[in-house]
Write a structure and sequence with these properties.
four-stranded antiparallel beta sheet; about 35% strand
Length: about 425
């Protein structure tokens, strides 16, 4: 789940909402668009701009589970690459989108879905890296208001969920079809989902090694004492409650590790836990330092997980990053994001908010948002400048293409954006 936000309390939102919003510290609406004090991604309707929680997307490619055999490197070693890379504009989307989801399909095209309410969810788009153009594809039914998660399944289809509804996209036919709905927790005092005011407000989706999808949430917007997790089985098209996984924490992330376990980390409580699909059990691995939510989590090639930025419980934004080591099940600090002004003359004064990440082919992590980007080198444990983006944007989707380039689409800058750009390492 990445990126917290919103100035509107969940208790103030009606069931039939114009824009899906989550709890947040503060929102500044500017005449030309939107700016943020906090870490947010944005959804927009024609009349309103509203920050929303954009969920963490599960791996873009079906994972291969293998023992962690790659040796871990030591900070201070020679950097992998010293080049900065370049940005250039590519084709624009048919609809302006902020907080949109992007999934790279097996054929290399990128599916863009959600990011602004009814029109953007009904009309998804496909990006063709060969032509640099976007084109409409299929039409989602009215069962979804927006997209909270999008997950590439092992058979190449894409599972799109907006609690409680779910649909499947088949790239072979370019068609969307409804699938089973998420279940309500029978012990939830607020009642079943069809009378619950707001549904799941912090949803993650993680593709497991056996092809099922683990869903966790934090519907109360704060603690792990929320609805139980659920497992989606694409063979039956149904969801099943997982009582041993008692939800997540608002703003946490869920990352599939190389050994098949799932790291659920962060949130306003700063806790972390591991889910083992083989046993069906969730085990706590203690607190993180500092507390962070709305951060990003990226699985590195050596098996560790890089967690970057986010918001502390006191508000604001974090420049710090940390590493999770599955060999020890421990967190440790690593280098921090570069400060404002270090990346270029036009860098935003809020450099740690609304960013997205992509793991590059050489093992570095690309971190982008606002009008600049950085590269994290796991060999040195340090961040370096990656260049200045052509258009200032945050809350955009960040997707690694098959040829090693990175697509950045939509987001918020001078309003909600339809433009997109390419980063070439």
């Amino acid at each position: 789940m990445a990126i917290q936000s919103g100035a509107i309390s969940p208790n103030q939102r009606p069931r039939h909402r114009l824009a899906l919003a989550r709890p947040s510290p503060a929102v500044l609406l500017l005449a030309a668009g939107v700016a943020l004090s906090g870490c947010s991604q944005w959804h927009a309707t024609a009349a309103t701009f509203s920050p929303t929680f954009s969920p963490t997307i599960s791996p873009l490619i079906s994972p291969t589970v293998s023992p962690l055999t790659t040796p871990l490197v030591t900070p201070g070693e020679t950097p992998l690459v010293q080049s900065v890379g370049k940005f250039h504009l590519t084709g624009s989307m048919g609809n302006a989108r902020g907080g949109n989801l992007a999934i790279r399909l097996n054929d290399g095209h990128v599916l863009i879905v959600g990011g602004g309410g009814p029109m953007t969810i009904i009309w998804p788009e496909l990006y063709d890296p060969a032509t640099g153009e976007f084109a409409p594809t299929g039409k989602i039914s009215n069962t979804l208001y927006d997209a909270q998660t999008a997950t590439l399944l092992q058979d190449g289809r894409v599972l799109i969920v907006d609690f409680p509804a779910a649909e499947l996209y088949d790239p072979r036919t370019s068609l969307f079809k409804p699938t089973g709905s998420m279940l309500a927790d029978s012990t939830d005092a607020s009642g079943p989902y069809n009378v619950r005011p707001y549904g799941y407000s912090g949803l993650t989706a993680t593709l497991l090694a056996d092809g099922r999808v683990l869903m966790t949430d934090a519907s109360d917007g704060s603690t792990r004492e929320s609805d139980p997790g659920q497992l989606y089985d694409p063979r039956t098209g149904t969801f099943q409650l997982v009582s041993t996984v008692q939800g997540g924490a608002y703003g946490d992330t869920a990352t599939l590790l190389q050994d098949g376990r799932v790291l659920i980390a962060g949130g306003r409580e700063g806790q972390a836990s591991l889910y083992d699909p083989k046993t069906g059990l969730l085990s706590s691995i203690g607190p993180m330092a500092p507390v962070r939510y709305g951060h990003t989590a990226t699985l590195l090639k050596d098996g560790r997980v890089l967690l970057v930025g986010g918001t502390p419980d006191s508000g604001g934004c974090l420049s710090s990053a940390e590493l999770f080591d599955p060999r020890t099940d421990k967190f440790s600090p690593t280098g921090a994001l570069l400060p404002s002004g270090a990346l270029g003359p036009t860098d935003s004064p809020m450099p740690y908010c609304g960013r997205g990440t992509a793991l590059l082919e050489d093992g570095r992590v690309f971190v982008a948002g606002w009008d600049s980007a950085q590269l994290y080198d796991p060999r040195t444990g340090e961040f370096s400048a990656a260049g200045v983006m052509t258009t200032a944007r945050f809350g955009c989707s960040v997707t690694l293409l098959k040829d090693g380039r990175v697509l950045l689409a939509g987001g918020a800058g001078s309003g909600i954006l339809a433009s997109a750009e390419i980063y070439t390492p």
